[in-house]
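User:
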Amino acid sequence: MPSTRMLHPHGRQCLMFTSVNTFKNQRTGPRRILLPWLLLGIFMIISASATATNTPIAPTATYTDTHGQTVSTATLKGHASMVWLLSTWCRSCSAGLSSLNAHVDQLRASGLHVVILRTYQNGGVTGPDIASFVAQNAPALMKANVSLGEATQGLERVYNPRHYPDIYYLIDANGRIQTVDTAPSITLNKILDFAKAHAGESRP
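Assistant: Predicted structure:
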């Protein structure tokens, strides 16, 4: 005798319920897949914004120029600038000056303001003054937008706390530090790229 299959009295309702649920899952599935990507996108936007906001502001400090006047780094705001602390007994510093000297036309055309300061007390080592050192290694550089001076102890404390003999900062016109590096003869492209990217950014 062939077996007979008994239908559950609510079988039809169960089948319909399952079908509706399957349809709902098919409709909401893409949303569930899309949601993590949407959240990731929002997170990336927030992170990028936070990174831009948290770019450090260049410290305000003073140095003494070659005329004996006290100058504040606050005067750099509104200008794309390079602040370079060097020691006049440092070989990488003389090489860096020569490299900048060879590209003085590009630096002048970009409007980059270059501030070259001898480290505080020249790092405790005797050596030529900053004007003589620059004139010897980069005479053409003096025709560009360059300021020379001596770092004060206060400036050394915030710009060169580890007392490196050679360290520079690339600072945009809004006063935000974009790069901190050393040895311009080796990292020259970084300086020139910055100067080109911020050409014409300086404001009176």
